Amino acid sequence: MLRTLGLILVALSLAGCTPPPTARLAAGTPLETVPAVDADRYLGLWFEVVRADHGFERDCDGVTAYYERREDGDIRVINRCWKNGLEGEFDLAEGRARIVNTNSNAELEVSFFGPFFGDYWIIDLAEDYSWAVVSEPKGRYLWILTRDPQPGDAFIEARLAELRARGFNTDGLIRPQQWNSIEDMPRSGLPG
């Protein structure tokens, strides 16, 4: 029993040391966030249009993130996806986020599992809050979020070019299926 437990712990620790397949090429240089985020303008519904591959969103399409204020000042996070296509099985994860850097509001931590938090850094943001690019300090994770589920190929290519200029490897990024419009999107799991 102890040997099995030991092997599991070794496997988990090795898995934790393995970087995701899409990462920042210039990992030694500090990743910069945007200078300022109006947290209240950032709240609401976002559509994931590009992401780096990672286990917790494997096979997810129609991915959305919804943010709203909690009574304690933190942010309620509702992540939704449909497995293996827009007609697939619905999956919901609810967590909370807290602002770590109150000077900029661009550095947050998000938790879906009790006391365990992961970094959520806003590294690019449209002036009108119509899109955002999110990563973490080492650039191992990456999301392009938009308010429109279909922002178009030219928009995505422009964001990818900017990411490459910042030292990101954009090979292997995932473009999940997304709803044709906000009206086509199911409201399952969203407030109100």
Concise structural overview:
The chain is an alpha+beta fold and 192 residues long. The protein contains three helices and eight strands. An eight-stranded antiparallel β-barrel has the order 1-2-3-4-5-6-7-8.
Kindly report how far apart the N and C termini lie: 49 Å
Structural class category: alpha+beta
| Fraction of residues in H or I helices | 10-25%
**Total separate domains:** 1
What percentage of the residues does DSSP assign to strands (E)?
Answer: 25-35%
Radius of gyration from CA coordinates: 17 Å
Shape: globular
What's the multimeric state?
single chain
Secondary-structure element sequence? HHEEEEEEEEH
Arrangement of strands in the largest sheet: 1-2-3-4-5-6-7-8
Assign the CATH superfamily: Calycin beta-barrel core domain
CATH class: Mainly Beta
Q: Mean of residue pLDDT?
A: 88
List keywords for this structure.
single chain; alpha+beta; eight-stranded antiparallel beta barrel; 3 helices; disordered N terminus; 33% strand; Lipocalin; 192 residues
Question: What can you see in these coordinates?
Answer:
- The chain has about 190 residues and is α+β, with helices and mostly antiparallel strands.
- It has 3 helices and 8 strands; from the N terminus they run H-H-E-E-E-E-E-E-E-E-H.
- It has an 8-stranded antiparallel β-barrel with strand order 1-2-3-4-5-6-7-8.
- The longest helix is centred in the first third of the chain and has 16 residues, at about 1-15.
- The chain has a single domain (about 25-165), classed as Calycin beta-barrel core domain (Lipocalin), CATH 2.40.128.20.
